[in-house]
Predict the 3D structure of the following.
Amino acid sequence: MEDIKYAPIGVFDSGVGGLTVAREIMHQLPDEYIIYFGDTARVPYGSKSRETIIRFSRQIVHFLQTKSVKAVVVACNTASALALETLQPELDIPVIGVVVPGARVAAESTKTGKVGVIATESTIASELYTRVIEEQNPRVQVYGKACPLFVPLVEEGWINDLVTLEVARRYLKPLMETGIDTLVMGCTHYPLLRETFRQILGDGVTLVNPAYETARELKDLLEREGIANDGKRVEAGHDPDKTEANAMDPGKTDEEKAVKKYSFYVSDAANKFKEFASTILPFGVDAAQLVHIEDY
Ligand code: DGL
């Protein structure tokens, strides 16, 4: 039987946004193989009900399990907030989300005891960020703000744009009036707007990117469970055809090797996904395979 430590990690999101989390995992855990699934047919999750998000997430995890993943990262704040608690006890592999790691670091970093959380409508309505931050430190006051316009603005490519800056000003104004010194970017797309937030908030507010903390938590978890890839058997990855060629060709650049380690699957619009993915990841994504996710 193949050693489980060489199995891939499943990472999923409602679409492209979770690539900000995958990017962090690639950076912090360079030996790991990743199977990424973006639910591009059913995005956005941020305005959907708990029941729907649980159903979608369950199907995706079933799909990832057909790829023999050793762990799953729910790289979507909305799915982490609404579905993770339900899914965890159903699975025999570790599953982590992005909310708890992000909330923990926010609770630790605030000095004023006032933390802002910006996220999708469903994530804010779930109040999970508030619950976890208050559990960590009951003296912290949490101010949540749903910012539904940010996701379409990012997907339109309006990252450094005056319209986005104005929208951000409006969303952030009430939070700034509360005196927050820490802001959780509680949606996968928001770290891409970091510079815009920084421009509005100045240097006095710490921006928390849950993706970063999630990758750290994943690293700890894999080591604790004894299933971290030690990088010693490059040829034993999840795609023997590709990785064997990869291992045997010492002339390959780091970028070429990276491309071989990661597989991308989507439920629709593969070409659009590839284009967007190539703007988020430090290498070009040459293939994203279509999956009929309702079958899982
Ligand atoms: N990935 C979602 C999140 O982090 C944002 C996009 C959506 O609404 O599906 O909450």
About this structure: The radius of gyration is 19 Å.
